[in-house]
Amino acid sequence: RRIVLSTRFSLDPNSQSQATHFTTMLKNHEYLQSEHFIVYSPNAFDKSTCDPEWTRFDWPCRGTHSSCQMEDVSLKTGVPQDGSCWRYSFRYQLENAKRTNGFMIQLAEAAAEFVRDETNQCLGDGQKIEKEMAADLQVKVFRVHAPITSSRSSRGNFLVEVDFTKEDIDEVISAIKNWYEGGCTDMSECNITYTGNFRSKKKYSVRTKRLSLAIYPERPQGKWSTT
After folding, report:
1. What's the rounded Cα separation, in Å, for the pair 198 and 20?
2. Looking at the whole model, is its pTM more than 0.85?
3. Of the candidates 79, 105, 101, which has an alpha carbon nearest to the alpha carbon of residue 92?
4. Which of 53, 77, 135, 162 could form a disulfide with 147 if both were Cys (CB 3.0 to 4.6 A apart)?
5. Which of 128, 147, 124 is nearest to 201 (CA)?
6. pLDDT tens digits, residue range 179-215?
7. What is the spatial distance between Cα 128 and Cα 58, in angstroms, rounded to a whole number?
8. Residue 58: DSSP 8-state
9. How many Å apart are CA 86 and CA 7, to the nearest integer?
10. Distance CA 95, CA 55 (A)
């Protein structure tokens, strides 16, 4: 079974981002290893694109042979190659997830450059495209709302990234197990949150990166829910 990760671009060799930490902990979880899941992280591979701006939502490519704008037909046929469009590669992996009864995990992070929409998501432009492709292929999506904390300075209030804990990853695994135990019949999106996502700086490791000014996001209720 294949898991496809949808995160912001982050797995640079020198990256210390929340997404990198989440990906590492998820891959090392004993359940995924014991059940021989294959975890595909697109950020770990070189990418190309047919979109001059890379992540324009209104660009027609949705990873299919017919929609991809790559001039070299071989780059949008069969197994993705070095030089294939990232959208084509991502859709190929989603198709593998669908075929193997797998799913997509999408990490929603708080960041100043992202606009929180009416469903309380916080996705990068590329992730919005990945979300649409998953819906088109009817691939199960688990969306993890990353934990954050608040910080105050003379300039105002900020959101600050917080490290994932083992217990946080266990919550994700619990939702996955419930889906399999239910026969994989519920294909609606499952949103996983952590007690409003806000954490105490005294208890958790806090990153120094400031994410947003003045306005905090709404605090999601509950642990995990299907919407």
Report:
1. 20
2. no
3. 79
4. 162
5. 147
6. 999 999 999 999 998 754 445 443 334 343 333 333 3
7. 11
8. T
9. 13
10. 20
